[in-house]
Structure formats: C-alpha cells, structure tokens
Amino acid sequence: MNFDDFIFIVPARKGSKGIKNKNLIKINKKELIVRTFSSLKNIKKENKYVLTDDNKIKNIAKKYNVDTSYHRKKILSGDDVELIDTVKDFCHYIKTIKTYKYIVILQPTSPFRTFLDIKKSLKKFKKNNYSSL
Predict the structure, then answer these.
(1) Does this model's pTM top 0.85?
(2) Sheet strands side by side (includes 102-105)
C-alpha cells in the first residue's frame, strides 16, 4: 500500500493532568511513545511527525526516524486544549512544506496498535471511500 497521501501525526504533550509523564509510562518495559513510534517504522520520515513540547519525546522520536521539526506551542499544550486546535496549527505549518490528502492521528495512549492494524485500517478506509475512520 502506498502511504504518500497520508501524514501520520503523534500528539504527545509534556504535561498531563491525571498521570505525570504518561507518554513515557512503560508497559512491558516499553514506553507508550516508543510503542507508537515503533508502529510507524515502515513509514517514510517525511510522512510522520510528533507534535510535542517535550524535548525528551523529541529525542526518542529522532531515534525512530520521526520528524520533530514542528514544535507544539505552549498555548496548545495545556490541559484544556482540544486536540483539533493542535492539529489545525500543525496543518498551517505543514502546508508550507507539502500537502497531504489524509491525516492519521496516532495517540500514544493506544499502545497495542501495530503497523498491521494501521495498514488494515487505511486499506478499509480507502476501499470504502470513508470520510473518516
């Protein structure tokens, strides 16, 4: 499957109201954020971005060949900020670089999603001509 029409974004802000540093919590000795980055290993770097204000997460992203050039602004990193606001800001940023037809948002708090799950979902999405999935 060709993923060139898709941009994969991983929102991972530093703060968390409920669980401190939740994106760095380990499940079976592997951080949540690492599990998400690992599921994207077969995607080109120019199609995958982390949206974060956390330097530690940016450093991990670099190890997994995830683009870290977008910096999540402080105003978009608070507890009351809606994800859509961060996605909109990112879209303004990315459109100066390249345009994509579809956005795939991968939350680190879904740790058991695999590349195969992503691939199957996107095939279903395209085959059925869904507007969202």
Answers:
(1) yes
(2) 48-51, 6-11, 102-105
CA 95/CA 114 separation, integer angstroms? 28
Euclidean distance between CA atoms 63 and 101, whole angstroms: 27
Q: How far is CA 85 from CA 18, 39, 61, 88, 133, in A?
A: 21, 25, 22, 5, 19
Q: Is residue 86 a contact partner of residue 70, using CB atoms and an 8 Å limit?
A: no
Per-residue pLDDT of 60-87, as tens digits, reads 999 999 999 999 888 888 888 899 999 9
**Tokens read off for 118:** 């992503």
CA dihedral 125, 30, 24, 106 (to 10 degrees): 0
Instruction: Kindly report, residue by residue over 8-54, the tens digit of the pLDDT.
Output: 999 998 877 777 888 988 999 999 999 999 999 999 999 999 999 99
Dist. CA 15–CA 121, nearest whole Å: 30
